[in-house]
UniProtKB/TrEMBL annotation:
InterPro entries the record matches: Aldolase_TIM, Elp3/MiaA/NifB-like_rSAM, RSAD2/Viperin_antiviral, rSAM, rSAM_sf
Lineage: Eukaryota, Fungi, Dikarya, Ascomycota, Pezizomycotina
Entry GO MF terms: 4 iron, 4 sulfur cluster binding; catalytic activity; metal ion binding
Xref: Pfam families: Radical_SAM
Gene Ontology biological process terms in this record: defense response to virus
Swiss-Prot/TrEMBL cofactor(s): [4Fe-4S] cluster
Coiled coil: none
Annotated region (Disordered), positions in chain: 341-360
Protein name: Radical SAM core domain-containing protein
Domain of life: Eukaryota
Transmembrane domains' residue ranges: 6-25
Occurrences of domain Radical SAM core (ranges): 32-240
PANTHER family membership: RADICAL S-ADENOSYL METHIONINE DOMAIN-CONTAINING PROTEIN 2, S-ADENOSYLMETHIONINE-DEPENDENT NUCLEOTIDE DEHYDRATASE RSAD2
PROSITE patterns linked: RADICAL_SAM
Length: 360
């Protein structure tokens, strides 16, 4: 009898041990994906008509505010630390956007909340009201010659004046001002250095124009960006002309293509290999939605997707860089790197740094 019981106990223990090993093996082979940084394109509507746009307005749906807040809460529980609101043009829904920005900081306490906008609908009042909850405001501008902006489809000739206004408002109300430029056939030879020095963005991201299958790559799609494309050497030519700006961050086609984790207006993750989107995270949950789509997490890290993305982290990376400078000066009589908050060397922080800054 005792032997029988021992045998059963041994059998149960072995069974549990094998199950545990299987679980460990599964986790090793399919590590849990953490949606650290999510780009939420909550609308496809836009008042501009950039010829290379690949988030074209095939519909004008936006999810109701309560659903959106619930979805953001689910993402925060799954590990999201940074969210970026994008479109379309997010400021076409300024009230909705303000509610989301405040919710992400006041309720979810995210490390970083940012917005990418074409700038045309940004108003000083909005920044006065919400900038304290906004880490980064990125505005797109591809040229400092309005004729080029008009040819591209970015506005009707008032884009640059508005860009300068926004940069000043950001300084006044305490959000970091970032600039995004798409380098394409119309602007790759332009010298933008003097304007960048005057605007002094914290980060200037320059993307090589991108063709996205089924979105902007033929006469059948709403936009046909083929006439905007440039060779890699032409992108490199632009980069070499502007690389001395400490805020300059180039992003080639190769890195850009699949490395952004994108939530669309229906609260679905987009598959970055061209397959169908996931189910809505409100219906299937974050983990299942993430596991059903492809997202290039290595590319995300490679393109510097994890960086000092709020003012505290920038201060920290500045102090670290200054510390390195001091140490190097003491040891070799030399200063290393650049201590500007917008420099690439100053921006880089480890995955571990971010992970240890638990705010939830
Ligand atoms: S401003 Fe942005 S969303 Fe609007 S058309 Fe241009 S690229 Fe597309």
């Amino acid at each position: 009898m005792l032997l029988d019981n021992l045998y059963i106990l041994f059998f149960l223990f072995s069974f549990a041990f094998i199950k545990w090993l299987q679980h460990l093996l599964h986790r090793k082979m399919h590590p849990k994906i953490i949606p650290l940084s999510v780009n939420y394109h909550f609308t496809r509507k836009c008042n501009y008509e950039c010829g290379f746009c690949f988030h074209t307005d095939t519909n004008s749906y936006i999810a109701p505010l309560p659903d959106t807040k619930a979805a953001l809460s689910l993402l925060a529980l799954a590990g999201m630390k940074k969210t970026n609101f994008a479109g379309g043009e997010p400021f076409l829904y300024a009230h909705h956007l303000g509610e989301l920005v405040d919710y992400c900081k006041d309720i979810l306490h995210l490390d970083s909340v940012s917005i990418v906008s074409n700038g045309s609908h940004i108003r000083e009042d909005w920044l006065k009201q919400h900038a304290h909850n906004l880490d980064i405001l990125a505005v797109s501008c591809d040229s400092f010659d309005e004729r080029t902006n008009i040819a591209i489809g970015r506005g009707k000739g008032t884009h640059i004046a508005q860009l300068y206004r926004i940069a000043n408002w950001c300084r006044t109300y305490g959000a970091l001002f970032k600039l995004n430029s798409v380098i394409n056939r119309y602007n790759w030879q332009e010298d933008m250095n003097s304007h960048i020095a005057k605007l002094d963005p914290y980060r200037w991201k320059c993307f090589q124009v991108l063709l996205v299958e089924g979105e902007n790559d033929s006469e059948q799609t709403k936009r046909d960006a083929r006439k905007f494309t440039i060779l890699d050497e032409e992108f490199e030519h632009f980069c070499s002309k502007h690389r001395d700006n400490p805020c300059f961050v180039p992003e080639s086609n190769k890195l850009m293509a699949k490395s952004y984790l994108i939530l669309d207006e229906h609260l679905r993750f987009l598959d970055r290999s061209g397959k169908a989107p996931s189910g809505s995270i409100m219906e299937v949950g974050v983990e299942k939605a993430l596991s059903s789509v492809f997202w290039d997490m290595d590319g995300f890290k490679e393109r510097g997707g994890i960086y000092a993305w709020n003012q505290d982290q920038i201060e920290k990376s500045k102090e670290e860089a200054e510390g390195q400078n001091l140490a190097a000066t003491k040891r070799f009589g030399l200063a290393v790197g650049d201590t500007c908050g917008g420099s690439q060397s100053g921006e880089a922080v480890d995955m571990e740094d971010i992970g240890s800054k638990k705010t939830l």
